[in-house]
């Protein structure tokens, strides 16, 4: 058999005839035969799916590009790559089983354990036939990634930071991050529109599933950050979906952005059993968009009930004070009437005494006594009228004083409520300022490149609109 490569002529030897060349097909056939003999068995391999072409119709095959890459201690990247094929009938059996075990379909970026057999074709080169998949390896790798993400967030204090933020007593100004066409967003808006309360909802569109969803949601948060003074809370909602659709909400960058956001973030991403990492870093995690709407409605209903209780209590106190004043006025009126009657009786008794005395004196003295009696009667009437007028003036003065006292009491209550509201607002501003300072201290250690975007987000926004206390 002639050699497979050309040899250099040895020195001091006459030139030999050139070796016979092999046809390419024969060379590749020998390579195929050697690989078939050497690697006749199948092998379990660990690899990452770099590219995947799923079957587009029944009977089509699934084509993959598998890679194996890591970094050495010096930072050099080592990489191996091979083409692989899952034939149609085998794909129809392996793909559903893999989805049932892992909750997701085969897709680029997954680390998998495959049983493969080496194949070599003269025209298409080296490839791997996939014979089996071990889903337990992929499930373990996803759980490990999730655990690493939670540990990183815990180390940076982002799991509990949102829960320490104060949520407004009656949140009605909401920034909603969702897809405009999502069924969950439509259910959320319908639930709010059917209530008796008025909400100001600002939709910030974002992708809610897929590999681009984390970056899209972070961009929406960055859009809200400079306008946060106009909102009470941020809501992240989406409709229902499979476990695969929730992978975007296990992203470390998205979870960290939610945990570090200066406003309370409420999530309702449409899952019943699973809990995404974003739910762990959010202020309040609810199951569905409808549950988020009910949460806000219930909070306003409880606030409304509290205000109704305060109003009833104020009404009871005011009615009690008015009733006490009316009772006091009636007592004063009875006292005035009794005093007038007593004085009149005394004057009548004195008159009768003088009449009896006058019967024994001359007529002139009697006339004089009559004149005195007349003057006394007029004086008594005037005194009674003056006393009655004085009592009436005192009653009017007391009524005005009572009304002024009631108004001052009402004004003091209003001022106390205003001071309480100002103190709450001032405390919220201080807490927000401290959170911003803490975030400014923590942020440079997390991502130096993102600091520029964060500082740009702190530029002064439009002045806040006048907001009344609900």
TrEMBL record:
The reactions it catalyses are:
Exonucleolytic cleavage in either 5'- to 3'- or 3'- to 5'-direction to yield nucleoside 5'-phosphates
Q: Which GO terms describe its molecular function?
A: exodeoxyribonuclease VII activity; nucleic acid binding
Q: EC number(s) on record?
A: 3.1.11.6
Leader peptide range in chain numbering: none
GO CC annotations on file: cytoplasm; exodeoxyribonuclease VII complex
Q: Which InterPro entries match?
A: Exonuc_VII_L, Exonuc_VII_lsu_C, OB-fold_nuc-bd_dom
Task: Please indicate if the UniProt record lists Signal as a keyword.
Answer: no
Every Exonuclease VII large subunit C-terminal domain range: 158-439
Coiled coil stretches, renumbered = none
Where is the protein localized? Cytoplasm
Instruction: Name the domain of life.
Output: Bacteria
OB-fold nucleic acid binding domain location is 24-131
In the record, biological process GO terms are:
DNA catabolic process
Tell me the protein family, please: Belongs to the XseA family.
Report what the protein is called: Exodeoxyribonuclease 7 large subunit
Q: What does UniProt list as this organism's lineage?
A: Bacteria, Pseudomonadati, Bacteroidota, Cytophagia, Cytophagales
